[in-house]
Amino acid sequence: MTAPSARAAANPTPNDLESFWMPFTPNRAFKAAPRLIVGAEGLEYVTTDGRRVIDGTSGLWCCNAGHNRAPIVEAIRRQAGELDYAPPFQFGHPKAFEAASRIAALAPGDLDHVFFANSGSEAVDTALKIALAYQNVTGKGGRTRLIGRERGYHGVGFGGISVGGIVGNRKMYGTLLTGVDHLPTIYSREQQAFTKGEPEWGAHLADELERIVGLHDASTIAAVIVEPMAGSTGVLPSPKGYLQKLRAICDRYGILLIFDEVITGFGRLGFAFAAERYGVVPDILTFAKAVNSGTVPMGGAIVRKPVFDAFMQGPEGAIELPHGYTYSGHPLAAAAAVAALDLYRDEGLFERARALEPRWADAVMALKSLPGILDIRTVGLAAGIDLDPRPGAPGRRAYEVMVAAYEAGAMVRVTADTIALSPPLIVDDATIGRLTGILAGAIRKVG
Ligand SMILES: Cc1ncc(COP(=O)(O)O)c(C=O)c1O
C-alpha cells in the first residue's frame, strides 16, 4: 500500500478553486489560504504539502472508526463491483435490509423500523414528516405544531432550520415552517461552567414544554425534537434528568418525542445511541454521519413499533408513506454501514469511548488555566471550549485558533467562539495528549 504522504505528494493544490461554492465556509478567505486534505489514515489526515494532521473532529463528527479503515474500504469496493445502484421505490436490494436490521438491533426499546435518507438534514425532515403523518393517520390531524429548542441544530432543510434555534442559519430564509415553537436553551454559563458530563442544573428547563402546551394546547402539537447533546452549537450536554422529564411530559400530552442523534449516534457518548446512555426511548430517532463512519452519505430515522404499525393499515397495495429519496439505502452506503457496524462491534469502540471518557475529560479540562477560557464542557468523547470573543469581532479568535492548530498539526472545529473536539473513537491517550497540547499552543499563540 502506498503511504498517505507519498500519495499526497502526487496530489498538488488544484490550480482553480473558484467554481466550488463551499458550504458553511468563508469562501474568499479559504481560497486565499486553502487548507486541502488529500489523504487520511487512522487518526490522521494528510495535507497537500504532505503534513500529517491529527483529526480532532472525526472529520465532521462522522469518522468514528478512524479513517480509511480496510474492512469498510473493502466493503465499498466489493459492493461497487457487484451492484452499483438499485431503486428503493418498489424494488430493493439485500444490503439495505441488512443495514436496517443491524441499525434497529442497536437501538433501544421498540425502536425497530428504519427509514433511510442521505444526510442528517434529510433524516430530520423525514422524522418531522413521519411525526406529522402519524398524527394524521391516527385521527389527530389537528396536531401540526413542531417544537424545537433554542440553539438546536437540525441541519439545513426547511424543516430542520424551522425547529432549529441558531439565528444565523434561519434569518436569511424567510418565514420557514409555520406553527413552530421553541424550548429555551439548556445552557447557562453562570450555572454550569466547567462541568464534566451532564450538568446538575437545568432539568427544570424541560418544564417549559408545559408552558408551551398551555399556550397552544396539546391537541395542536405533533412532536418535540431535541439533540440529547447539542453538538454543532458548541457541545451542550443535557442536564441530569432533563430528557426524562421531557419524555414524561410528552407522554402526558400524547406528543411524539424525537431525538436527533445525528452526532450522538454510534458511540460518541459511549453507547450506540445517547438514548441508551440516558435510559430514555424517543418515538423517533434520527441518525447519519457515523452510521458508516462518514464514508458514504447516509442518514435515516428509526421509529418505534407503534408508530410504524399505525401506517401499516388499509389496502396492502397502497403506499403507506409518500416519502423517500432516490438514494434511500444506497447499496454503497448500506454496505459501508454494515462494515462499520461490524468494526464498531469487533473493536468494542463504543465501550472504548466510555472507558476513555474520564481521561478525555481530565485532559481537556486541563486547558482551563489558559488565558481567555470562559467555559469547557465535556461529555463522552466530545468537548466544547468557549473562548472570550474579541471585542467587535465575534468568532475571530476561535477561527484564528483553528488555523494555528491546523498549521501546528491538529484539526479542530469552530462554531462562533467555541472550539469543538470529537476525535475518532480509536483515539488513544498519547494522541489525546498531542491534540490538547497542540490546541493549548495555538490558544497561547493567538492570545
Ligand atoms: C444534530 C444534527 N442534526 C442534523 C445535522 C445535519 O446533518 P447533515 O449535515 O448531514 O445534513 C447535523 C449536522 O451536524 C446535526 O449535528
TrEMBL record:
Cofactor(s) required for function per UniProt: pyridoxal 5'-phosphate
Signal peptide location: none
CDD domains: OAT_like
GO molecular function per UniProt: pyridoxal phosphate binding; transaminase activity
Keyword field contains Transferase: yes
Keywords: Aminotransferase, Pyridoxal phosphate, Transferase
Protein family: Belongs to the class-III pyridoxal-phosphate-dependent aminotransferase family.
PANTHER family for the chain: AMINOTRANSFERASE, AMINOTRANSFERASE CLASS-III
Name under which the protein is recorded: Aspartate aminotransferase family protein
